[in-house]
Specification:
With 159 residues, the chain is mainly alpha-helical. The protein is built from nine helices and no strands. 77% of the residues lie in helices and 0% in strands. It is globular, with a radius of gyration of 21 Å.
């Protein structure tokens, strides 16, 4: 027997769809977020990253995060482009913002770990490697890449 509460929840979840169909629509209501146009500055920023245009990426992604300060991906890529320019203070700030918005952001953990290695802070890089190990469960690309970078760093330091 289905508990009454579960049945009520199921009925309530179907009401909006049923209402939309009853009004002559053959599609469920569109979410507000889906109606929003894609962020052109985010797209320009990621295209600039693909081309290695770090200054262009920073310019576009700075506009993107100003327009959408809750976009962890944009902050992560802004950190990446800043790091590629050697602006580590900015990079760390952007990665931290991405992680504050999404503590399990795999890309931000990988990239901040790489930035720590580039600034000779192995301990902090390994902290982010441990975080990725917890987040990924059965491994993931970001974990494997940071693990390889940590191994390279250690091999270079020991030789």
């Amino acid at each position: 027997m289905i508990p009454l509460r579960s049945l009520m929840i199921a009925v309530l979840l179907c009401v909006p769809l049923g209402s939309a169909l009853a009004m002559g629509s053959d599609k469920p209501p569109v979410e507000e977020a889906a109606k929003q146009p894609a962020d052109p500055n985010y797209a320009l920023g990621t295209q600039a990253i693909d081309k290695g245009d770090w200054n262009g990426a920073v310019a576009a992604l700075t506009k993107s995060v100003a327009a959408n300060p809750k976009n962890a991906d944009a902050f992560n890529y802004l950190g990446y482009a800043s790091r590629k320019l050697g602006k580590y203070e900015d990079a760390f700030a952007h990665y931290q913002k991405a992680l504050a918005l999404d503590p399990e952001h795999k890309g931000a953990h990988e990239y901040i770990g790489e930035a720590y290695l580039e600034t000779n802070n192995l301990a902090k890089a390994e902290e982010h490697l441990k975080q990725l190990d917890k987040i990924c469960l059965f491994s993931c690309k970001e974990y494997r890449e940071l693990k390889a970078r940590v191994a390279e760093y250690k091999a270079k330091k020991s030789s």
